[in-house]
Amino acid sequence: MAEKKTLRQEFTKGLIAENPVLRLVLGTCPTLATSTSMVNAIGMGISVTIVLLCSNIVISLLRKVIPSKVRIPAYIVVIASFVTIVQLLIKAFIPALDEALGVFLPLIVVNCILLGRAEAFAGKNSVIASAADGLGMGIGFTAAVFCMATIREFFGNGTLFTGADSLLGLFGITSFTGIEIFSRLPESLNIEPILIFILAPGGFFTFGLLMAVANRLAEKKGKKKADLRGCESCPMAAACALKGGCETEIKEEVAAQ
Asked: Domain limits of the chain?
């Protein structure tokens, strides 16, 4: 029988030991797409955290009411409802961020982090524990995306917090638009931004680098490396219609060809 974790452990596990991006390798699409700018990363991270926290709480409250056969559609409806609320609020108050995030904001609905936590945790645990899990995973996601964005924006654009006025405008601060790093250096240094960092290859390179760091930190705390073995690592494996047989089915299709 698995040892029951405290609320503190449920919260902190998502920061490093079970970081959804760097350890569980979930939500990689929005991570790579929105990590070209620190402001975009913060916006996406906060949005995911709010939806994750709220959906975990509601799903945990309804876990004994939702029939097992329709739990996945029910989870999606709950998640989609909160995503719609967050998107409408961002459209109303931070339109620049809504435009920058584009389609990746509504696509939070199908982010595997949210559905994975709903199925693996919120649907089986108490409201308080689910809230701690959702908040911890959300902060872990935000931290991972923010670290990636910091590296990519600094080396790729030579700036930090470009477009910060779109967020700070909520507090009446519109004068701070970011920090120019490379342009302030002496011309004799002749340092130019490394544009590949804001392109896809730079995203994958930074992602791999941070994954290595996260694995190293987790190893020091006695955690094993993230072991991704197809369906076995998927949080939806138990509910999948193929029930772990997708790899076998693919092999059979290849053999038939």
From this structure: 7-182+193-224, 227-257
Q: What is the pLDDT of residues 98-152, one digit of tens each?
A: 999 999 999 999 888 999 999 999 999 999 999 999 999 999 999 999 999 999 9
Task: Tell me the two tokens of residue 167.
Answer: 């967020």
How confident is the prediction for the chain on average, in pLDDT?
85
The string of pLDDT tens digits covering residues 80-97 is 999 999 999 999 999 999
Residue with tokens 């939070």: 108
CB–CB of 114/51 below 8 Å? yes
Q: pLDDT at position 136, please?
A: 95
Residue 253: CA atoms inside 13 Å, Cβ hemisphere, count?
A: 6
159-160 and 179-180 beta bridge pairing: antiparallel
Q: How far apart are CA 13 and CA 18, in angstroms?
A: 5
pLDDT digits (tens, 9 = 90+) for 138-175: 999 999 999 999 999 999 999 999 889 888 888 888 88
Which of 215, 76, 49, 59 lies closest to 137, judged by CA?
A: 49
